[in-house]
Design goal:
Blueprint (H helix, E strand, L loop, with lengths): L5 H9 L7 E5 L12 E2 L9 E2 L3 E4 L1 H5 L4 E8 L13 E5 L11 E4 L3 E4 L2 E4 L9 E2 L10 E3 L7 H9 L4 E5 L4 E6 L3 E2 L10 E2 L2 H10 L6 E5 L3 H14 L2 E5 L10 H7 L3 E5 L3 E2 L5 E4 L5 E5 L3 H19 L7 E5 L3 E2 L5 E10 L5 E5 L16 E5 L5 E2 L4 E6 L3
Parallel strand pairs: 5-6, 13-16, 13-17, 14-15, 17-21, 19-24, 22-25
Antiparallel strand pairs: 1-12, 2-11, 3-10, 4-6, 4-7, 5-9, 8-9, 18-20, 20-21, 22-28, 23-27, 24-25, 24-26, 26-28
Helix pairs in contact: 1-7, 5-6
Length: about 400
């Protein structure tokens, strides 16, 4: 199978979008999960007419009848039953959030009053029904407060709590296993020889997934074909998604494609016209498990993860797409017939535009710049020269 375009790879990936169902969880555990139901008001919001300020409550008819001073009948705080007035020349000293009785319909702030010896005097022009938050003004019983298919945020949890929604229906998450390969890769805790490298891809992928509340196990396999085949078979049975790094290029020890073939994992594509990440392999097992096998270089892993897997995951979880674009801040020459994903630093200019400044790197093995950049900018395959001021799609990371 020859190399395919980035767009073709995306179409193949998105043809494998799948739902993992839903589950009910306690709302305090729902932060960062994907809401699978609408949250509706269980009563009118607010549930009663209430004061929006600290001050006094009067009947506006008295003001229209030239009353400007009012005897304070009582003081009412939030949470207490509403207190009525018995005559036009009375008022209730009332606190923010307190319920209003039907006998009053206008609230005046302390700042606009003079209170002496239990009498309040109004010293400004007022309007009828001012400073009142009326029952049902925000939402009526049964109206939607929060729509499904969005990430549960602190504000959403606050809304859920306010309507007594302590059990939330959320999207189930796929079970993911992260696998790195290669004899030359050793644990981060160990000291490498001059010809070894410490493993970094596993913790990078794991950390990105935790944003979505996916807590994946990390494994490492050395370059042993039978071991890889046996372990791959086990993982296919135990998980939904395998995210792999290494073992997919053309080397004699790149065993993954052959192991997948012998296990009946269908290759959906292998190799994309892109840099970094050209050898990316994607396949599906007979029991519908997906294998995302990225090249081993750290930048390739990072790019493929954010350009392909994360969009696939968000579509599977029905998170609305939020495509973003940035204005290139410097010229880039890329004289190769590959789609180039350049590392860029993002910022906002005084006009409010999102701008992207590319950084020079030393290839897909040079991951040192990932810490100082925020995104890959996707440069079209059909061009080799990209000019300052041109606008291109970006794929954010480190956010």
């Amino acid at each position: 199978m020859e190399m395919i375009s980035v767009q073709q790879a995306e179409e193949i990936l998105f043809s494998q979008i799948k739902s993992f169902g839903t589950e009910e969880i306690f709302y305090e555990n729902a932060l960062g999960r994907i809401l699978a139901e609408n949250i509706v008001a269980d009563c009118d919001l607010p549930p009663f007419d209430r004061s929006m300020v600290d001050g006094i409550a009067i009947n506006f008819n008295a003001y229209e009848n030239s009353f400007r001073t009012f005897k304070i009948k009582a003081i009412q705080s939030a949470g207490e039953p509403p207190i009525s007035i018995d005559s036009e020349d009375e008022c209730i000293e009332i606190m923010t959030g307190a319920a209003l009785d039907n006998s009053v319909n206008t609230v005046i702030r302390y700042e606009d009053l003079i209170i002496e010896n239990g009498v309040a005097t109004i010293n400004i022009i007022i309007k009828k029904e001012q400073n009142i938050h009326w029952k049902g003004k925000d939402k009526k019983t049964g109206e939607i407060l929060v729509k499904a298919n969005q990430v549960v945020t602190p504000s959403i949890l606050g809304i859920a709590s306010s309507v007594g929604k302590t059990i939330l229906n959320v999207k189930k998450l796929p079970k993911v296993i992260i696998i790195s390969t290669g004899d030359e890769m050793i644990s981060a805790e160990d000291v490498p020889t001059p010809f070894q490298l410490r493993r970094s891809n596993g913790i990078t992928i794991k950390s990105v997934l935790e944003k979505y509340k996916i807590y994946a196990d990390c494994l490492h396999w050395n370059d042993d074909f039978q071991f890889i085949k046996n372990e791959l078979s086990r993982c296919i049975d135990e998980c939904d998604i395998m995210l792999m790094s290494g073992g997919v290029s053309m080397g004699k020890f790149d065993y993954l494609p052959k192991a997948c073939e012998e296990l009946g994992v269908e290759k959906l594509f292998h190799k994309i016209k892109q840099r970094p990440g050209k050898p990316f392999w994607f396949g599906k097992s007979q029991n519908e498990k997906l294998v995302f096998a990225f090249p081993g270089n750290p930048v390739s892993v990072f790019m493929c993860l954010h350009r392909y897997f994360i969009p696939w995951l968000e579509k599977s979880l029905e998170i609305p797409e939020t495509a973003q674009y940035a204005v290139l801040q410097n010229d880039i020459d890329f004289p190769f017939s590959l789609q180039y994903f350049a590392q860029v630093k993002l910022s906002v200019n005084p006009s409010g535009q999102l701008i992207a400044e590319s950084v020079n790197t030393n290839g897909s093995g040079d991951f040192s710049h990932l810490a100082e950049t925020n995104a890959f900018i996707e440069l079209p395959l059909e061009k080799t020269e990209f000019k300052k001021g041109e606008v291109y799609k970006i794929w954010k990371y480190n956010f």
